[in-house]
Amino acid sequence: MSAPFFLGKIIDVIYTNPSGDYVDSLTHLCAGLTCVFLCGAAANAVRVYLMQSSGQSIVNRLRTSLFSSILRQEVAFFDKTRTGELINRLSSDTALLGRSVTENLSDGLRAGAQASVGVGMMFFVSPSLATFVLSVVPPISILAVIYGRYLRKLSKATQDSLAQATQVCSFSAPAPGKESAFLFSQ
């Protein structure tokens, strides 16, 4: 989030210094930008490591819990449930659930941090513009969410209508084999 701020400062130094003596200022700004990128890379590496290790821990606990639950089942359960399905539940489903939980949590925390830092930087640069943006963007976002839900319902209704129409056509039209046999027999 601070990279655009530093790049703006670099452009300001270049264009507001008519004498052309901006080497020292640019050196300090570029050093600050390098530090920001290095700190960001280190924080990202720590975040990835923590999310991976917590994800593996979650998957391990899920598998252990699921396996112990399977072992407590009665014999009739194993007669009607196939072994392949149980193995699939133990392996891929638990991994998928663990990955979903950790990725969504990580993305949510990162988005929250970026939003709060972004809003803070907006108020630092221009409080009046930040107030205006924060008074306009949330209502537009809420309207976009409401419209998206409306479109989802409309799409579902369209798909349901198409399914009913297909079902009606399948009952009223003759089977293709009989129709073809009739046409070729003449």
Summed up, what is this model?
This protein has helices spanning 2-16, 23-71, 75-80, 83-125, 127-172, 176-185. It is mainly alpha-helical and 186 residues long.
Structure, described:
By secondary structure, the protein is mainly α. The chain folds into 2 domains: 1-125, ABC transporter transmembrane region fold; 127-186. It is built from 6 helices and no strands. The protein has helices at residues 2-16, 23-71, 75-80, 83-125, 127-172, 176-185. Helix 2 packs antiparallel against helix 4 and helix 4 runs antiparallel to helix 5 (127-172). It starts with a helix and ends with a helix.
Structural class of the secondary structure composition?
A: mainly alpha
Number of domains: 2
- Determine the N-to-C terminus distance: 77 Å
* Low-pLDDT residue intervals, each spanning 5 or more residues: none
Strand-and-helix sequence, N→C? HHHHHH
> What is the H level of CATH, i.e. the homologous superfamily of the largest domain?
ABC transporter type 1, transmembrane domain
Radius of gyration based on Cα positions: 30 Å
- Tell the overall outline: flat
Query: How many DSSP H or I helices?
Result: 6
